[in-house]
Write a structure and sequence with these properties.
Helix 3 (33-51) packs antiparallel against helix 6 (140-168). The mean pLDDT is 95. This protein has 7 helices and no strands. By secondary structure, it is mostly helical. Helix content is 65%, strand content 0%. The chain is globular, with a radius of gyration of 17 Å. The termini are far apart.
């Protein structure tokens, strides 16, 4: 086993431990969105470590340019989405749901900014991250990891939508009919 592989395995194990700690409440409840999000994070982490050596290789190749564009969109979506959840969503630690992390404990439905078009900008950002990392070094193995991340993110979003409908009621159902899940006007 090469030293690079040993380092990557160690990073994977360490990052998995951190993700498991953050997701500890969700991992005890398969019905929570966080349970499936954990496995999406794991697939993305594996993809990152798999393609890490190619991160800056051939910087002006078509796949690197596509990669950097997707990564930029991912970054913008996550910053924008978290900002809106904190500012408009009015998170409250009193919201009873042990599986939610801080900024997810929103008490107001967010329907502005990116949320005006898509219901899950943060999961969308993870999809763009996955695509960006995949295009660093496209391969069949990378494609399988990206597909796994996609499937886990779709499962995550669907379960979160049930949770949101239960908390926000008919307002969420109306919002759901007016927006797409991840990509404006498409999906």
């Amino acid at each position: 086993m090469g030293s690079t592989l040993v380092v990557k395995v160690a990073v994977f194990v360490g990052a998995t431990a951190g993700l498991a700690f953050v997701s500890r409440a969700s991992l005890r409840d398969r019905r929570s969105h966080g349970f499936y999000r954990f496995f999406a994070w794991e697939a993305i982490l594996a993809l990152i470590l798999r393609n890490l050596d190619a991160w800056f290789r051939d910087p002006f190749s078509w796949h690197q340019i596509v990669s950097w564009c997707l990564l930029l969109v991912s970054l913008l979506l996550v910053v924008h989405g978290v900002h809106l959840l904190r500012r408009v969503g009015k998170p409250d630690e009193q919201r009873e749901d042990a599986t939610l992390v801080g900024f997810e404990r929103t008490t107001s439905l967010v329907t502005v900014g990116a949320y005006q078009y898509i219901r899950h900008p943060l999961y969308s950002s993870l999809l763009f991250l996955t695509g960006g990392v995949f295009f660093k070094a496209p391969s069949c193995t990378g494609g399988l990891l990206a597909l796994a991340a996609l499937l886990f993110l779709v499962a995550t979003a669907r379960i979160e939508e049930r949770e949101n409908a239960a908390f926000f009621g008919p307002d969420y159902e109306l919002y759901r009919k007016q927006t797409k899940m991840f990509i404006p006007f498409l999906f």
